[in-house]
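Task card 7
Instruction: Convert sequence to structure tokens.
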Amino acid sequence: MARVLVAMSGGVDSSVAAWLLRQQGHDCLGVTMQLYDNPTAGIPQGHTCCTLDDAEDARAVARRLGIPHYVFNFKEAFERYVIRNFTESYLAGRTPNPCIRCNRFLKFDLLLRRARELGCDCIATGHYAVLERAGDRVELRKAADAAKDQTYVLYAMTGDQLAHTLFPLGGLHKSEVRLIAQREGFVNARKKDSQDICFVPDGDYAAFLESCTGRALKPGDLLDTAGNVLGRHRGAAAYTLGQRRGLGFAAGERIYVCAKDMEKNTVTLGPEEALYTDTVLAEDWNWTVPPPVGPMRARVKLRYRQTEQPALLTALPDDRVELRFDAPQRAVTPGQAAVAYDGDLVLGGGTILA
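Output:
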């Protein structure tokens, strides 16, 4: 049996993950990461993670399981790797995924290093994903519950991290996890899943950016695809490719954000057909399997909830990958992730550059 550091967010998933590991006989330590200062003012409880109440829920479950519980202060690292990147990316015209950054730099890097300092063999989380040993390496595969599969946000894990991580929920469905929590009398058995970015719980990215930078977003011109001025926007960073609502401009037909020029501070609106492309370039690509020696076929997700689409992958220098899709893809968004699959096996992923 192993000594396992269990990341306990205070939610039902990580709580049941800890219970399962205890049932298997592992020696467990529960840990909650304190990521940011969050007095409860204005934060709708049950819709975010990492609040003070979440830490108390995690502590209550750990006490019920008879395992020690600690709170690690990772606020400085979260600010450096997640919030600062989130702010800089939006201001540069990209739409980042902070959950991927948190997994990459905190949960499976900083937390794993801390676990080793405490004499633990591995870490465990409540993610829905499956790990399978294949010879001398570990493969990342989709969870049994397709609706909850979280491999899209785990693609950046290294071979060493995969080999020293446990995902106890990989073979379960969410309904089974809820039933276990209710049967065991966990305080969070009926707690809702977090739905928003934890540090922007109301989804108002523009207000968050203004608060972080201490200055208001700069208004600029709304353009059509021919470069004609249609009106004014409230700040290019507040708009996302494919956005249709809240444009501040009424047209006789449906129009969408189809381009942004951050240097010129313009937002271009156009018809839906202007949103499609069949070629995508991704950078900072991480292969979770041995990289191919030439172009390879795969199925790729460009958004968390998207069904994978068939594409040809070609590895380029400097950890970049070109993806040519069989069919044009809608609203490909720089800053989001492209993740490649072969069936349920994760091949790798990277950040969409263009």
